[in-house]
Amino acid sequence: MTKFLFILLLVMGSFCSYGQTRITGQVTSGNSSEGLAGVTVLEKGNPTNGVATGADGRFSISVASPSSVLVFSFIGYETREVPVGNQQTINISLREDARALAEVVVTSFGREQESKSLTYAVQQVDAELIQETNQPNALNALRGRVAGVSIQSAGGAPGAGATIVIRGINSLNPNANNQPLFVVDGIPISNQTDLTGNRSGTDLTGGRAGDIFTNTNRFADINPDDIASISVLKGPAASALYGLRASNGAVIITTKSGQSGKTTFNFRTSASIDDVYRTPPMQTRYGRGFNGIYNPTDYRADGPPIPAGEPIYDQWDQVFRTGHQYQNNFSFSGGTEQATFYGSLGRLDQTGVVPNSDFDRTTVKITGSLKTSDRLKLDGSANYINSNGLNPRSGVGGSGVISYASRYAPDVDMRNYLNPDGTQLRYATQLDNPLFFAENAYQEEDLNRVIGNMGLNYKFTDWLSLDYRAGIDYYSNQRRIITRPTVLIAAGSRGSISEQNLTYQEINSNLLLTGDRQLSEDFGLTFSVGNQVTMINSTDIIGSGTNFILPDFNSVNNLGQYTVRSFPTERNIIGVFADAKLNFRETVFLNVTGRNDWSSTLPENNRSFFYPSVSLAYIFTETLGLSQNQIFNYGKLRASYAEVGKDAAPYLLGNYYTTQAPFLGVAGIRRSEVIGSETLRPERTKGIEMGVELGFLGSRLKLDATYAIQNSVDQIVPVPTSRPTGFTTFVTNAGEIQNRVLELILDAEVLRSENFKWNSIFNFTRLRGEVLSMPEGVDVITFQPESPWVKQRIQTGGRPGDWYGWELSRVNSPGNPADGRLVILNGYPDVNNNWKGTPLAQDTYIGNAFPDYEGGWNNSFSFKNFSFSFLFNFRKGGEAFDINRRMRYGSSGGEAPTGAETDLRNRLVIFDGVTNTGTIEAPVWVENTTPVVLDVATFYSQAFRYRLAKEFNGFQDASVLRLQNVSLSYSLPKTLLGKTPFTNVTASVTGNNLWMTSPFIGFDPEQSAYGPGSNVFGYVGTNIPATRSVYFGLNFTF
Amino acid sequence: MRKLLYSTAIALGTLFLGACGDLLDVNSDPGRVSPEEATLPTLLPSAQRFTANTQYGAAQYGVQYPQYLTGQAIGQFTPYGFDQLWNPFYTDAFPTLQDMINRAGEVGAYNYSGIAKTLLALNLMTVTDIYGDAPYSQANQGTANLYPCYDKMEDLYRVHIIKLLDEALADLARPLPARQDLRNVQNDLIYGGVLTQWTKAVRAIRARYFLHLSEKDPALLATAAQEAAASFGSIADDLQLSFEMQNANPWFGFLGSPGAKPMQPSSYVVDLLSGRGGRFQGVADPRLPIYMTRTTPNQTTDIGLTPGRLVGDQPTVNVNMTSTSWHTRAIAPILFITYAETQFIIAEALFTTNRAGAHAAYLRGIEASMAKVGVPVAQMSAYLANPAVALTPATLTLQDIMLQKYLALYMQIETWTDMRRYQYSQTVYPRLEKPVINQLPGNPWVQRSNLADEEPGVNTCLPSGVTQTTPLWLFQ
């Protein structure tokens, strides 16, 4: 260490002060008399001579001569130059640079960096924008605000998770987790989504089975009111320093901390009204019965037409009710020059829009910092979270509240579902009542989490400092999944319960040595070297079983048959890294990083891996002398190349045996179906990024455009193998995916006057993924949860999210008058050119689950004490498969359709198309004249005739324009508050998801049926729908 | 302060350097068993259960082909790759059985290897009867061969299955292993470790094998009869796996529970059992109410679903498989091969050479079938005494043998092999009709499984030109 410092000193050159003239003074902020800490005071032309102001804003510096000029600069303030002259005391105030303030972003290791020196794409969202949405899950508040980032919520169930994907899917594995790393105050925390149910030992199954309880992503535990800002580091260059866990990008959260000065208290309260406003249209013509025969004990909608005057019950009105969220948050902060503190207490109570669903969350956070000397600063924070959730079963598959409701005839009063003896009033043996089901098939969970960290910062000199920070994230999540024997899905098992106890513990230790020197007049250097140790342990113990002993006793102790399974994991990562930032006249910025990681999850020979990055930014307007230009004042070009390595999940190497559940009193073992390569290598993500930032009209209009190409190579993929190998899955390095993304951000200060301000930010993302290569011998990886409906295929040359299915057959014979018309076979439209003998296995490409482009447009206005904002987001293109729509058509043989599209029935029709009277080779097309009857038995329930074609089966354009957020607030004038203890009182009304327009028929085309733990997009329609929420809030500061 | 920092730095440095190795050597799953820890007695119960899953899986949707049940699109001959057979055999049963054979060979535990080879031969024969060509000699090699080629059905029959069956007989006759802990077969869920029972089971499987192969070599009929005679002596010997309430028979969860009924008994089997079929006219079979349940107790006629119709298409259908039907009860066994089947093998094999022997075996087969499912003795005697059933050696026809075998082997996939051996002959199976909606072009009978759905795309060594309409080698 000493040697290193010595060399450094030599490199930097000697710096001695001759002590000719000593200047002292104080720097204050704006019009206030409060001192401004941390302001850089530099002697112009002598970059080695500089100091920073103390906590009170005071400074003392020696300068060479009276002709010296002092430069005062501070992030977020306008820089001022003051000639020394004969002064010995210089007291100045720096003006806040309102536009510049937003240009400070938090990057790696919580360091604030001026955006002009950034060499890669980072986008920051500030606290107000997050808090004004009132979203209890802060991730949802980012939706539509960040270019290159796609956020999807798993639905409107209380506590439902949300998925964030930065710059596209980069794994061939449909079950892989593509989530970025979440870092709070410099320490990574878990954003895991722990899926419900048993695991196959290795966590390869991910979300494949669908997440029937839309479990939450763990970042949602963070109280949004504690957040000061969120920065999204999008590419590998931005996240290289966080190492392998940031290979999908990083989300950097800074939480609020105390400020020296008067202690302030803040109390915020809000209440919401939540409802489901967009539901699929249902037919109301045909009532209960089957084959046209009325049957009062049937639920199926295949009876005769409902007589006039009979009551009609909307299926959705019966299932959905109004939900509420009550959020209360109390916080206090303050401090002295030596110590600051911040504390908060937050509480959320939510009732869901379906029966038997609620969620509550209590958070407590304290943060403090202490300066023991000018050199040493200590800080720490502790955050405790407790949440409790209750949700009925929904999700992929036929058994859920939503899918049940969608199958009921419109003349059945679902709310009348109990017999006098308390048993379920069933309309037929084959379907449960959704309301009864909600009360008898559900998950309840309880989470306790502690996130804490402590840090110290020691300044060796004014340019060299050491930062050490250690943090822990620990949670324990207890889940109980109850399926009472009274519901049909448990009839075979006579009831089942699963009690799952998950714990997760992550300990991080970061050591960082940072130097910041102006090397000469032209060159400045910031460098850091660091070490990071991450230790992750998790346990997952599931006691589950079947055969209820007593009907209502909700405990695993009530089971006649049970097994206990334990899935412990341990994963440790050690990293060392170096980061050097060199700037030339604050005009050209060069950033070089290198990192080496050692991961416990890779084979010993491959566990150490190095990856570099280099990036460059050039503010050409400086060179051109345009910085004061009235019209075009800022222009920057960026370019970077970076790699990030990525390790495997624990225990993927080689092969294991697993124990089996006891059978006839004997438990056996079996070889696992998964075998892992013994020579697994780390994955790599390689990215090139180019960007341009332009500022016009004094940066009132800013454009930021980024184009990035990211290749994920050597992916660690569970390759599906031919089962005759004895294994289903071979975990190996294979395949490559490329994502090309164009991100545009247009930020305009449209109006700026004393009383009225209007800011408008527009962002746009166009993303294209492409599969460049597949694992050897594997042509295609198919994801098909709903046989035989549409499927997603990953194959070379395709894109992730490619849909394959069957289209209606059309005549393809240019010039022929029949060209383009439907092919009719036996009176019905033909599918997939089946008339030519094309087998269904040869299906065709029909679309992609990902949009052509997406974005958001936010406008915020302030007028005197009012502020108003609205956010639209949009996606164009991309198709979704509505699993629920398939059910509304009649889900299987014997089910009757309920969707509005099936209103047309029991009548003779002649399909508008042509039939072939020639041969397959030489078709002769004549007008179809065969009348057929459209009815349930021969049409709606027949896959070939109706439901197989993508035009009918629920496959739809998922384009949407959504009014994501509207917020109006009013602050009481200061004059009114003068005699009260309050310094600020604000009342607000906020709406989320208020309106949307989409060609999609159904609930919501953007609400994935698969949870945040999976990589599958485009399947929708089975979860509790996203709600429209209107919040009324009050905020008091005193 | 400086001292503090240095000592902190040194402490941290020591901690990290010293702990590095330990931190990184943690990639061995504490929750799972290593290959070295696996043992024969713990593999055996898994192998037996996987065999039951394989046999069940072959029948789960496959029972629509011999028209026991119908009501799914598969019953209309839409493409079907028998995944429910392919997956449990290749992923579960075969690797576990092969693992046992390898491990037993290393330690000379021929008692275990005899059992494993018996079950592997049984399963492999089921697989080849359905797929024809199937991976065997290149299979089960893990990453050493990720693209196993398919063995010809002829080779599977003439080389591999018989080799397993011969070795199984030989192994079971070998001296017990020297190792005390392996002398008695433990955890044998089927025969409780009694090797003589396993020898009978090998004989029964050999009888089925030679009967199949007699299609190519009629002289083997005699061998089939001999093997059958040397096999089971009563229904107590049946090779089957029983289930318990806590671990219900898979049929129970699939069809027995009151939830959705994906399939229903077909009109073919219901008509036969009701005395309305092409044979046994007017004879009500006492097995009918045991095999299935009438959903309309006040009706007196049982009506099955016409093959090719989907469940729900035909409102008049009034029979279902329920939790009280013999085969779909929670505790029902999965039958691998039964005494009744061996008697029908004898009857069929001796039909041309020893009509009296064939007739006697025919009656024993019916009796065994009825006793197995608990038909009361009086009803059984009445049924057997009915002239339409009792017959005489002179009046017995092949049709009687095969139809009674059809009824005895209700819900077993072996019947589909019988039907294809006779190529769905109307003389053997009178009034057997193709499904009313046949999705195979040209309205042919279904002859075999499609390629397993999962295979294309993951295996580069696939047979070409597979269609479900081409008869397999054995049936050509």
Automatic annotation (TrEMBL), chain A:
Source species of the chain: Rufibacter glacialis
Entry annotated with the keyword Transport: yes
Location in the cell: Cell outer membrane
Protein name listed in UniProt: SusC/RagA family TonB-linked outer membrane protein
UniProt record, GO biological process: siderophore transmembrane transport
PANTHER family: HEMOGLOBIN AND HEMOGLOBIN-HAPTOGLOBIN-BINDING PROTEIN 1-RELATED, TONB-DEPENDENT OUTER MEMBRANE RECEPTOR
Keyword terms: Cell outer membrane, Membrane, Signal, Transmembrane, Transmembrane beta strand, Transport
Signal peptide limits: 1-19
Residue ranges occupied by any TonB-dependent receptor plug domain in the UniProt entry: 116-250
NCBIfam families in UniProt: OMP_RagA_SusC, SusC_RagA_signa
Automatic annotation (TrEMBL), chain B:
Superkingdom of source: Bacteria
InterPro entries: SusD-like_2, TPR-like_helical_dom_sf
Signal peptide span: 1-19
Keywords (A to Z) from UniProt: Lipoprotein, Signal
SUPFAM superfamilies linked: TPR-like (SSF48452)
A Pfam cross-reference name: SusD-like_2
Protein known as: SusD/RagB family nutrient-binding outer membrane lipoprotein
Organism of this sequence: Rufibacter glacialis
